Amino acid sequence: MDVTTARERLEDMLAELDRSIAVLQGDPVAVREHHAADAGSDLTDADRARAMLTVAGTQRAAVVQALKRLEEGVYGRCVDCARPVPEGRLEARPEAARCVECQGKRERRR
Ligand SMILES: [Zn+2]
Questions:
Q1: Which residues place a Cβ less than 5 A from the ion ligand 1?
Q2: Distance 90 CA to ligand 1 centre (A)
Q3: How remote is the CA of residue 80 from the centroid of ligand 1, in Å?
Q4: How far apart are CA 83 and CA 92, in angstroms?
Q5: How much distance in Å is there from the Cα of 101 to the middle of ligand 1?
Q6: What is the pLDDT of residues 39-87, one digit of tens each?
Q7: Which residues is 77 bridged to in the sheet?
């Protein structure tokens, strides 16, 4: 994936995440209506909104970091081992910071 395409995709993702975060933070009614269909679960609306905000916030941070790596000319390299991240992985997740191997190690550590 070339740098221009990567930047476009990352900027789209960032805009989308910012919209989601704004909705989650600013309009609890919208969140409640959005989830009215699956009422009856244990989670309260506030818990749901918080969980979604955490996910969106984490992903947003990853996208911002990826854009920073683009600026620095190191995009597409694993931040841990500096080997190139496979093209297919970047296609699926343009914000990926690590190759599959390093990501796997990191997730096992948690
Ligand atoms: Zn790696």
A1: 78, 80-81, 99, 102
A2: 13
A3: 5
A4: 18
A5: 6
A6: 555 678 888 888 999 999 999 999 999 999 999 999 999 999 999 999 9
A7: 84
pTM for the whole structure: 0.79
Residue 34: both structure tokens together: 């959005």
Buried/exposed 17-49: b ≥16 CB within 10 Å, e otherwise: beebbebbeeeeeebeebeeeeeeeeeebeebb
Query: Rounded distance, CA 76 to CA 71, Å?
Result: 12
Expressed in angstroms and rounded, the spacing between residue 31 Cα and the centre of ligand 1 is 37
How far, in Å, from the CA of 58 to the mean position of ligand 1? 20
Cα of 60 to ligand 1 centre, how many Å?
21
The neighbouring-strand residues paired with 84 are 77
Q: Tokens representing 78?
A: 């694993």
Q: How close is the Cα of 61 to the center of ligand 1, in Å?
A: 19
Measured in residues, the chain has a length of: 110
CA count, 13 A, side-chain hemisphere, 109: 6
